[in-house]
Amino acid sequence: MLNIPTQSFPAPRSQQRVAASGQSRRNKVDLKPGHSLMDWIRFSKSGKDLTGLRGRLIEVTQEEMQKHNTREDCWTCIRGMVYNVSPYMDYHPGGEEELMKAAGIDGTDLFDQVHRWVNYESMLKECLVGRMATTVIKASIPSSPQTSFAPPMSMAAPTKKDSWPRYDWFQTEATVHLVVYAERKIPSSGCTIVDLEAGVLRLEVLLGKMSYMIHLRLADEVEGNVAVHNAFQVGKIQVSIRKQAKGKWSSLGQPLEVHNTFLRKKDRALHYRDCVLVSKTEVNHNTHMFRLQLPRGTVMHVPVGKHVYLKALVQDTEVVRPYTPVDQNLTAASQESELYLMIKVYPDGVFTPHLNSLHVGDCVSVSGPEGTFSLRPLCDVTYLYLLAAGTGFTPMARLIQLALQDGDTIRKTTLLFLNRREEDILWRCDLDELAARHERFQVEYVLSNPCESWTGRKGRLDESMLQDVLNRPDGSKCCVCVCGPNAFTELCIGLLKQQGFSEEELHAFQG
Question: Which one of 86, 240, 458, 483 is least enclosed by Cβ atoms within 10 Å?
Answer without folding.
Answer: 458
